Every structure is written in structure tokens, then in C-alpha cells.
Amino acid sequence: MSAEPTLLAPAVAALPPPRTLAARLLRNPVVALGAGFLLLMALIGAFAPFLGTLDPTAINPATRNRPPGFERTIRTDDGSSTFRHRMGTDSLGRDVYSRVLYGARVSLLIAVSVAFISLAIGLLLGLVAGYIRPLDGPIMRLMDGLMAIPGILLAIAVVSLFRAGLPAVIAAIVVPEIPRVVRLVRSIVLSVREEPYVEAAIMAGTRLPLLMARHILPNTIAPLIVQGTFIAASAILVEAVLSFLGIGIPPETPSWGNIMAEGRNLFRIYPHNILYPGIFLGLTVLAVNMLGDGLRDTLDPKMTGR
After folding, report:
1. Rg value, the chain, Cα
2. Which CATH superfamily is domain 4-65+100-304 in?
3. Residue range 238-255, pLDDT digits in tens
4. pTM for the full model?
């Protein structure tokens, strides 16, 4: 029993110490740039009502399809004030600037929710499939069946079964992502369970829940963090595709996907209805991917020395 700390050393080496990890992340410009832009987008979404915006659902037919920079006078009980539509208006007279800023809330919420739920379910199934042999076959055959269906088609099928809304979109994006996480975790468990420190823990009579928590789970943290960033980026794109097709977020809730969907018919005449949400969408997905690449390079011991 005195040799247990030595045998358990590889289990806790999956991640560097917190100070070392923070120092590596700060020195990586890709991580800093990606995380900084995502933080900016989160602040924009959180403080959208205070950034000089109008009600994103307010319809004004008198100001339809106005170009960016258009000014109009808003009369109130206290007098009147001039408001500038920084990104123009859409076909219903709604302020595109306000809708784009409020749309950041929806896109980031979906990205975080899909990543968290996919990783949680995939981690559980992957641990079970990788360690409990009798359950490995049924679980992996189910995952293979889900992966045989193209992700966007599976998402469309799932969202069609429920009432259109945020929960249905999240569920539709989560289902295609779970098999990828399960396969990743299962492959890690299959390799780790043969390590000497795991065999020593089994011989010492360690119970299965404690064995999973102390010796196997720590080895999955770094790969799952990286995988989570790529899932978040994919979730933003899939939500935009579903909303663009008209089966995602309802039009009364602004998201980058349905903003572009509503402006696609008049794109050649009024390109600003698609241009601005498209820029925000593209930059956000790029930032998430940059963060994922930087985390992979930082957390992967094979990439650290390069």
C-alpha cells in the first residue's frame, strides 16, 4: 500500500499544475486572441440593452430596408431624440444592430449548452462502454447507427419532432455530437485501463466509482476540453443552418441564423441584412476554433515541446 502514490502518479499527470497551465495559456497568442474575442462577444450579449440598442422585435414599416447609418427621430413623452441605425434595418423595419447584438446571446447560449450536455452524456456513456465489456457492444452499435446519419439531417429530424424553440434546437444539435464524444472517451478508457497503476488499484480492492473518479476520469479531462470547443463552434454553425432553413429559433427571438434567413430574399439589393450577422457568426466560430487549437497545443504533451 505504501507504493500507491508512485503508481498513481500517471493518473494525475493528465493536466499540468494550475499555475503551469495558466502560464502556458497566457503565453499562447492563439488562446489569448480566441478567448479575448469570445469574452468580448459574451459581454456584448450580456450588456446588449445598454449598448444603444432598440427593442430587437419592434416593427416599424415606415423604416423598412434602410441602409446602415440611417437616422430617424423617435418621439417620446419627454420630447424627441435622434437614433442612428448603425447597421440599417430589415424588411420589417427592425434595427439590425440591435438584433445582431441580442443574437449573440442565443448563439453563445446554444454553444455552451450543447458542449456541456454533449460532454456530460458522452463522458458517462464512454466510461461505461470502455470499462464494462458487456455494455460496450450495444452502446457502440447505437453510436455507430447515429453516426451513420449525416449530422445536419439528424438534427433536422430531431427538431421536427418537437415544437420549434431553443430547447428543441439544443436537443437537435446535441444528439449528433454525443457519438463523437463517446468514441473519444472510450478510446481513452481502453488505453488507460491497461496501465499498471489502474491494475494496482484494482488489485488493492478499489471500488469501481472511486476507480473511475481517481484513475480514469482525470485522463479524459484535457481531450474533452479541446473537444468541447470544437463542439461549441459546430453548434453555432448548425443553429445558424437550422434557423436559416426556418426550423430553428423562432423569428421573434433574434439569432444570427434567422436574421440572415429573413434577409436572403433581398440580399442583392440590401446586403447589410446578411453581411453583419454573417461577420459576427464567422468571427465567433473562428475564435472558438482558435481557442480549441490553442488548448490542444497547450494540453497535449506531444505538442508542448514544439
Report:
1. 24
2. MetI-like (1.10.3720.10)
3. 888 888 887 888 878 888
4. 0.82
Contact 132, 186 (CB under 8 A): no
Domain boundaries, the chain: 4-65+100-304
Q: For position 11, what pLDDT does the model report?
A: 41
Q: What is the pLDDT of residue 9?
A: 39
Angstrom distance (rounded) from CA 239 to CA 230: 14
**What's the half-sphere exposure (Cβ side, CA atoms, 13 Å) at 270?**
21
- On the CB side of 239, CA atoms within 13 Å amount to 36
Distance between CA atoms of residues 304 and 297, nearest Å? 6
pLDDT at 178: 92
Residues of the chain short of pLDDT 50, as ranges, are 1-14, 305-306
Phi, psi for 95 (deg, rounded to 5): -75, 120
Beta bridge partners of 83: 72
Per-residue HEC secondary structure of 181-249 comes to HHHHHHHHHHHHCCCHHHHHHHHCCCCHHHHHHHHHCHHHHHHHHHHHHHHHHHHHHHHHHHHHCCCCC
Q: What is the DSSP string of 140-195?
A: HHHHHHHHTS-HHHHHHHHHHTS-SSHHHHHHHHHHHHHHHHHHHHHHHHHHHTTS
Tell me phi and psi for residue 117, to 5 degrees.
-65, -40
To which residue does cell 448603425 refer? 86
Asked whether the beta carbons of 71 and 84 are under 8 A apart, the reply is: yes
pLDDT digits (tens, 9 = 90+) for 172-219: 889 889 999 999 998 888 888 777 777 777 777 677 777 777 778 887
| DSSP at 60 | -
Q: What is the pLDDT of residue 120?
A: 93
Distance between CA atoms of residues 260 and 222, nearest Å: 36
Single-letter amino acid, residue 200: A
Q: Exposure of 152 by Cβ count < 10 A (0-12 exposed, 13-18 middle, 19+ buried)?
A: middle
